[in-house]
């Protein structure tokens, strides 16, 4: 280990970058827009990857205005390209969707085996979840607020409350826990999802 190692370990982390347990930047724990390996910012890397060294945005817009280019969606530097592994935000949304939907279809009167399986699923998250920062936080939360697997309504409410705890920490809006069935099982009353 040379002087560069000592210097780089003391260098400030870019905003939003999360360190993993190995002391290196954690890709799965960091939002794509904040991922800055090396000297290129996540935004710069995304722009390079999406444009492939082709036309600039101004040149593309001029071509579109002239009708000489096929309209394509503009690159979003905060979202990874579709073939990339998920970032922390995509993984979180997918995990919460899975958990809430599973709770929405959980039985009202679960058997002892169903209760045990649900508890195993919930308790496995802090052990197996790829984002160690998220996993540790969830593990601490379920120690303080043990899972309620007594039935569908109780489990849905418990998960909604856990999700809202995360939303508070992330300064996001909280979800109305009286609407869990509407969101993850039945759909809105207007029939727009039927």
TrEMBL record:
UniProt key word Mitochondrion: yes
Cofactor section: FAD
Any one annotated GO CC term: mitochondrial intermembrane space
Signal peptide: none
Gene Ontology MF: a single term: flavin-dependent sulfhydryl oxidase activity
EC code(s) of this entry: 1.8.3.2
Key words, A-Z: Disulfide bond, FAD, Flavoprotein, Mitochondrion, Oxidoreductase
Primary enzyme class: oxidoreductase
Subcellular location as annotated: Mitochondrion intermembrane space
All residue ranges annotated as the ERV/ALR sulfhydryl oxidase domain in the record: 84-184
Pfam families, per database record: Evr1_Alr (PF04777)
SUPFAM superfamilies found in the cross-reference section: FAD-dependent thiol oxidase (SSF69000)
Catalytic reaction(s) noted: 2 R'C(R)SH + O2 = R'C(R)S-S(R)CR' + H2O2
Residues that span the membrane, as ranges: none
Name used for this protein in its record: Sulfhydryl oxidase
Organism phylogeny: Eukaryota, Fungi, Dikarya, Basidiomycota, Agaricomycotina
């Amino acid at each position: 280990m040379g002087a560069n190692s000592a210097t780089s370990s003391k260098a400030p982390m870019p905003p939003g970058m999360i360190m993993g347990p190995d002391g290196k930047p954690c890709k799965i724990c960091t939002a794509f827009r904040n991922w800055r390996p090396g000297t290129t910012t996540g935004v710069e890397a995304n722009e390079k990857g999406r444009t492939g060294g082709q036309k600039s945005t101004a040149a593309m817009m001029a071509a579109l205005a002239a009708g000489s280019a096929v309209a394509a969606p503009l690159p979003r530097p905060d979202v990874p390209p579709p073939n990339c592994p998920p970032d922390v935000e995509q993984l979180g949304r997918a995990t919460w969707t899975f958990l809430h939907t599973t709770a929405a279809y959980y039985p009202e009167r679960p058997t002892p085996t169903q209760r045990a399986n649900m508890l195993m699923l919930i308790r496995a998250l802090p052990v197996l979840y790829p984002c160690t920062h998220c996993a540790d936080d969830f593990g601490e939360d379920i120690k303080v607020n043990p899972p309620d697997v007594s039935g569908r309504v109780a489990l849905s409410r418990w998960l909604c409350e856990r999700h809202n705890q995360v939303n508070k920490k992330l300064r996001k809006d909280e979800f109305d826990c009286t609407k869990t069935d509407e969101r993850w099982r039945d759909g809105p009353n207007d029939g727009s999802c039927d």
